[in-house]
Amino acid sequence: MKTDDVKAFISLISVIFILLIGMMMSGCASMMGESGHMANSLNYVRQHKGEGLRRTLLGSEAELMDMAVKGMEKAKYTIVREPHAVLARWPGTDLSYAFYFYPSQANNQTDVEVLVASPWSTAEAMRRYQEQAFSSIGIFSLAVKNMKLLEINKKLLERGDDLNMKVEGAWLPLSAAAFDGQIETAKKLINKGADVDLAIYELKEAASEQSPYLSYPDNRKIYDKANLAAEMLNRLTPKEIVQQTNVSQNITKEDLANIVKSAVEDAKKSQDKDIKTASAVQSDIGKPFFSTESKIMGDNDYAIIIGIEGYSSLPKSDYSYDDAKLVKDYLKALGVKERNIELLIDEKATLSGIMKSIEAWLPNKLKKGGKVFVYYSGHGASNPVTGEAFIVPYDGDPNYLDVTGYPLKRLYEKLGRLQASEVIVVLDSCFSGAGGRSVLAKGARPLVMMSQSAVLPRNLVVLSATQGSQISTSSQEKGHGIFTYYFLKALKKGKKSVSEIYEHIKPYVEDDAKSINVQQSPSINPNLDRLKGRFLLRK
Predict the structure, then answer these.
(1) What pLDDT does 125 receive?
(2) Contacts of 531 (CB under 8 A, 6+ apart)
(3) Which alpha helices (DSSP H) does 26-109 contain, by range?
(4) Do 187 and 242 contact (CB within 8 A), yes or no?
(5) Sheet with 406-407, side-by-side order of all strands
(6) Other C-beta atoms within 10 Å of 93: how many?
(7) 333 with 289: CB under 8 angstroms?
(8) Helix and strand tally (H, E) in the chain?
(9) Using CA atoms, how far apart are residues 448 and 472, in angstroms rounded to an integer?
(10) Which of the two residues, 136 and 287, has the higher pLDDT score?
(11) Which of 59-63, 267-271, 391-395, 490-494 has the lowest mean pLDDT?
(12) Which letter, b or e, does each residue of 230-243 get, where b requires 16 or more Cβ atoms within 10 Å of its Cβ?
């Protein structure tokens, strides 16, 4: 690891030190919640390994551990070095910081978990500070990753590789050019074969993680620039570019190096680049808030949220990524604890990942009487012979559903065996293309489910985006799946139970779908007469 990298990391740790001292001086006097009545914060971070914030960073375990030690020593912490861990305690105050290291199978990558603990602040505040450590301050993700960004891209371009090849830790050249406002260079890149859709997707990713932190000027800046760049690229097509520009189609390595260099500088200023997708549309259902009196979710309630927008070998499922993240925000606002939510997005939502969450993580965590919420947005498929419906994971193949898909029947059976008082399943997906050729509307999610035909356990309800062989649509105007949009809006407007939400949103979904010449009507199973007074999400 280079000296400059270490210095950069140490400076970032120093910023964290200042932040934590500021927290102490701001009068955070309340005890931590259910997990926070500890006499010694250092013991707490040992005992609660796995409950912190976790990210994948470039660098070996030894390199990153060494940087953590140097950084915390610089901030005057007392260091305890353990196998695969660096623990740090502020002398004279019960404040501890833990770094846990999980070597990755990928070359030169390490998963790092950050956990902060102190009895003078709430558990929710501690989790927020951990997020800020990664997302706002950029704890060694930039010190390690972005220091190498220019070098990685230079090597890629010098080899003359595909401009659309994704390199770990680096932006696509077209994304970088658009982000920096270099329109003419972006046109050159497109005419040389750069994929506009890939760049737009990457720029939307670069806005997504900024959404919760828009009160910070640097986060607001990258959010605005990324959305503006995506809008700019959205207006460009290769045909229009050829007609409108007289610039030579020959783009030099120097041009590309300047693009990347500028993007790196902007990324350093923003203090965050480890980001995922967001719609440029300003949604009226963002930033959920519910009063304390309206919350009924608590410590014993769990959620699994799956959103697959970009598949490994299938068409996109528009807005599924953003919708899943927003559903998580709503559940947190309704009282579900962060640590009780499994969020599987895109490449994390593999068949093995889905099975592990549903069949291992959830049964092991859930206590008797707790509530469970499961949300899925993405593609599905049906077996053309048996008609059995499947969720299609990130790595799924509709041609080999029996070995690559996750059957809805199995999902319901596994959920029905839980010791949960109630299980709510919300599916923004559809059952279509079961045989022959299907003509799909723009924005359709072409393939999932017929929940109304399933016989469900008594403690389980399924609210689905469609009926029968309809398709589940999305709205460019709203920036969401139509069904998910109205589901969340109903919650925000005060609808309490799943049955109440269903009755409220059904006509709205039908009308919006008709406006784009699609037939879509939500369904619920079991029937409404069996749901009265049950399956509440809020007061």
Answers:
(1) 66
(2) 461, 497, 498, 499, 524
(3) 41-47, 61-74
(4) no
(5) 380-382, 389-391, 406-407
(6) 13
(7) yes
(8) 19, 16
(9) 9
(10) 287
(11) 267-271
(12) bebbeebeeeebee
Residue of 423, 426, 524 whose CA lies nearest to 484: 426
Helix (H, G, I), strand (E, B) or coil at 281: coil
Res 149: pLDDT: 42
The partner residues of 497 in beta bridges, in order of sequence, read 536
Q: At what angle do helices 3-25 and 123-135 cross, to 10 degrees?
A: 150
CA distance 187 to 171: 17
In this predicted structure, what is the pLDDT of residue 503? 95
pLDDT mean over 304-326 = 91
Helix residue spans in 209-346 (DSSP H): 217-234, 238-244, 253-270, 320-333
- The stretch 1-27 carries a mean pLDDT of 44
Highest mean pLDDT among 28-32, 138-142, 285-289, 484-488: 484-488
Give the phi and the psi of residue 440 in degrees, each rounded to 5.
Answer: -105, 135
pTM for the predicted model, two decimal places? 0.51
Residue 377 and residue 309: Cα distance in Å, rounded?
A: 8
- For CA atoms 177, 182, 185, 189, the dihedral sign is positive
Q: Which region among 144-148, 314-318, 337-341 has the lowest average model confidence (pLDDT)? A: 144-148
Does 145 score more than 50 pLDDT? no
136-170 b/e with 16+ CB inside 10 Å = b? bbbbbbbbbbbbbbbebbbebbeeeeebeeeeebb
pLDDT at 147 (0 to 100): 39
Structure tokens at 79: 């260091």
183 exposure class (CB count in 10 Å sphere: 0-12, 13-18, 19+): middle
Helices 149-158 and 253-270: angle between axes, nearest 10 degrees: 160
Token readout for 407 is 């059957």
Mean of pLDDT values over 471-489: 90
Say whether 42 sits in a helix, a strand or coil.
helix
Round to whole Å and give the CA distance between 317 and 253: 35
Return the higher-pLDDT residue of 492 and 374.
374
* Angle subtended by helix axes 482-492 and 320-333, to nearest 10: 20
The rounded distance, in Å, linking the Cα atoms of 353 and 306 is 10
Percent helix, strand and coil across the chain, each to the nearest 5: 45, 15, 40
DSSP letters for 155-190: HHHHTT--TT---TT---HHHHHHHTT-HHHHHHHH
Across 250-259, 345-354, 415-424, least confident range: 250-259
| Calpha distance 279→230 (Å, rounded) | 9
Tell me if 109 sits within 8 A of 167, measured CB to CB.
no
C-alpha–C-alpha distance, residues 103 and 277, integer Å:
26
Mean per-residue pLDDT, 501-524:
92
Residues near 169 by beta carbon (within 8 Å), at least 6 away in sequence? 58, 145, 146, 148, 149, 152
